[in-house]
Fold HAD family hydrolase.
Amino acid sequence: MKFVFDLDGTLSFDGVTIDDEIKQVLVRAEEFGHEVAFASARSYRDCLGLLGDELCQKLVIGLNGGVAYHQGQLVHADYLDKDVYRQVLGFCRHYNLPFFVDDTFDYSGQILEKIPFYTGVDPLNKAQYRSLGELTDPIKVVIYMGGHEELVDEIVERIEKTNKAHIRYHAHEKCIYLNPADTHKASTVEELCGENFVAFGNDQNDIEFFEKALYAVQIGDFPALSPYADDQLIAKQNQPQAVAAKILQVFAEFRGK
């Protein structure tokens, strides 16, 4: 069985590390006849240090499905429609909105210090910051809307009308996330892993992922995800140990399936 794990809030609770106890369980997947993969909003470059040398060689789907690496090599990429991208840049420049752009490995943007995840970008210094003119094949755009929430509906509506992008507003982050049309975690997981997989996740961008999964385990209590979960782990104390135990339990339950 394929087991596909979200990272932040599911396996990592500080955005910097995954507890050794969780990693030790993940590398035991083959003992139960399973394979592990990872699916994150992060770029692959931002998963490297978090996963470590062994786990980063597994299938790693990044940018909410826009990119995938296996054994350290790019195996999948979906790119934003160029017209949509120009329209989004126009919005951001006109209103001076902070935004962050990813291609398969490098990045660009403006007022990057306002982006909620910026402190975790490229911690191993393996990528390059490029000018917008140099970054010609964008995959994902994140726009920070703090202080400009009144513009969210207008931006989302205009992009949705194009039918050329997957767009979602995360109110708790005050960020708009933009991906290529029909591209999200679930679409790429299904393409690369098949229809039968077990999902572990915690947040809004795991909803489609959970809908497609054979079995879905929610970590935490994000209310919008709960209706799509088959199982849920809410642990206020000893979270890494509890997650490791839950993974091991589900590995055992799906042995031979």
